[in-house]
Amino acid sequence: MAFQPIVDVTKRRIIYYEALVRGPKGESAGSILSQVTDDLMYRFDQECRIKAIELASELDMQERLSINFLPNAVYEPEACIQATLETSKRVGWPTERLNFEITETERVKDRAHMRNIIDSYRAMGFTTSLDDFGNGYANLDLLTDLRPDSLKIDRELVMGCDSDTRRQAILSSVVTLAEELNVTLVAEGVETREESRCLLALGLPLQQGFYFARPSLEALAKVDDTLYD
How confident is the model over 149-202, as pLDDT tens digits? Predict the structure, then answer.
């Protein structure tokens, strides 16, 4: 696992870390996931959760931990969460500091199943995020059925936003929508100071990207305080 920080630019601090799958030599998540067959997906999903929590505890992470999960690997939320709960208890990780990011939305055919996962996790005290919002299948129509706690705005809408009035208009609309739906927004893929300043001006203080820190393999990346200026 690698960990990348998500920061609150206004408060000038890291608010949580996202755990990202990596190979033993730092291979990308895509290269690893491509090797996971359908019959191993459930086990892989469970092992990733366990590994992320164990490592976060070993690294003495004090912030919240965000873990990606594949909805199709969750056949029944309460049953599938047991290994996560057992691991959290074993290492002393507070379950209220866990957030689950929904990925691979293009593969989900049963939205009622995904909504059940989100609602069940909320009832257990977890929070959930919808990843890659604004790109591909992670779009507005999902919000007619799903009620995640947060949306992670895809890099496609973030890149070059400081010099692109169309992107600024779209982002501004998303901010308004999120306020009305009571959903928190996180801007992903922030790579320049100009993008960060623009996002903050548009009402998006929660940010993640290479500008602040690249994912650190089995370590907690730090953020230089001057990057908030």
Answer: 999 999 999 999 999 999 999 999 999 999 999 999 999 999 999 999 999 999
Q: Left, alpha or beta for 197 (phi > 0: left; psi -120 to 50: alpha)?
A: alpha
- Cα gap 182→3, rounded to integer Å: 27
CATH architecture of 2-220: Alpha-Beta Barrel (3.20)
Known catalytic residue: 180?
no
The answer to whether the CB of 46 falls within 8 A of the CB of 83 is yes
- The whole-angstrom distance between residue 113's C-alpha and the CA centroid of its chain comes to 20
Tell me how far CA of residue 199 lies from CA of 14, 19, 185, in angstroms. Answer: 17, 24, 11
What token pair was written down for 229?
Answer: 């200026």
3-class secondary-structure state, position 88: helix
Query: Per-domain residue ranges for the chain?
Result: 2-220
Q: Following DSSP, what letter does each residue of 12-36 receive, concatenated?
A: TEEEEEEEE---TT---HHHHHTT-
Element at 44 (helix H, strand E) = helix 41-58
Residue where the block lists tokens 């491509």: 34
Encode pLDDT of 33-46 as tens digits: 899 898 888 889 89
Instruction: List the catalytic residue out of 54, 188, 191, 218.
Output: 188
